[in-house]
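Workshop exercise sheet. Pairs work together: one partner reads the sequence aloud, the other fills in the structure field after running the prediction. Swap roles for the next sheet.
Pair: D.N. / O.F.
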Amino acid sequence: MIVDGAHTGKDLEERFDAVVIGSGAGGAVVAKELAEGGMRVAVLEEGAHHKTTSHTDLPYEAISRLYRDKGFTTTVGKPAIPVPMGRALGGTTVINSGTCFRTPTKVLEHWERDLGLHSLTEASFNPFFERVEREINVVDGEFKVMSRANTIIHEALSKRGTPGKALKRNIRGCEGCGFCCYGCPSGAKQSMDVSYLPKAFLAGAKAFTNTKFERFLTEGRRVVGVEATFHRDSGPSTGHRLTIKAPLVILAAGTIHSPQLLRNNGVAVENRNLGRNLTLHPATKVFARFDEEVNGWQGTPQAYYSDLLKDQGITFEGIFVPPDVAAMTVPFVGRRLNEFMRDYKHMAAFGFLISDSSTGRVVRLPFVGTTVLYNFQEADIEKFRTAIAFLARVFLEAGANKVYTLLHGYSELSSEADIQRLEKGRLKAEDIDGMAFHPLGTCGAGRVARWDQRAGEGVMIADGSVVPESLGVNPQVTIAAFGLRAAEKLLESRP
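Structure field:
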């Protein structure tokens, strides 16, 4: 059942066994598992419920409807980095690319060996991975729906003798329309609003959309419920409130907002790590102009990857954006922008993300509110240099006549000499124009949350904030596994 706060013309007060704040990769999993386990479950979602049939083929409109801050959430630091996040029932899974990786074995071994998190082992997590993958239908991507931009890289890497692989994706009947990041219009992508949440509702869970969490209800040090306000779609409060009494609160508001909700309510504030140790997987893309028409926006944009440089903390993945989005986001103006867009149908692109050694923190600044502070360290600048040089060489070998980077001072590369100039030249953090899609770690297990993901009496965390450190791969399966782990522990501890 879904209650739309935008159209609830009165205050509500209800009782549940558990309330989940957030409906993304962690929160939706917890809600389904607890509801199927016999608990009365409420889900609070600040965004609206957007049915598959409502998804548009106009990217700018989709960004305005589905993205927090209309896609303009940005870090403060060198460089400033946009961090797109979903604001809808299903959370960021509604706007992600559908890419699915398990937590890498080396990462789990590091957590156990170096962080002392002996319960976070591959043996203990594999059953969670398997259950999540079955539920969201993780399958190998198909070459027949890949964009030409992906297959150009596949052909070039294969000629080198180092082919990549089709990405695993959570899909059923993908048509390759290319709108994964703007709400899948066919319903093929098994985001949480399509997979886990409908089953949660069948088991009796109740979601409140357009509903903004305000504060915890407490008795002594124990959290016993929440208060929230109803809002009009992406707009002001309706003036009505929701009060929920529940002995269990599962915080799944995301890596940026969960630590602030704890801090604002005096939970775990004694822990100096609260809001710290933020990692982002900074990323960017490289464009290349070919004589052939590529039309890279046709087909699945993120369908192929290479982990050839994974030991250097670099993962290459397909990426492409529609022309209207490209025109808004490439750092070109005037005649240069006009020439770039004129040639856009001849452009291919490929991207990468890095496992960042840099860390940031989430703070609350006067008159500003929740703010993400993050600065690139030298090691991560060098990862960007290495990855961009690698992609430039691959594209030129594939027959591109020009490569475009998003690095100031090195925006066009047409030869090996240009690439060597990039490799040997000065590169500062502020020269980098990138994005980051995977914030993690601000309530990390073993640092803020306990090993069992509890952050206080009556509060458990089940989102990316509880992931201890950078993964180096897309995290939605990892976050869902942490959600499944949290639900299992809650069900085991029921009286």
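Discussion prompt: The longest helix spans residues 378-397. What would you look at next?
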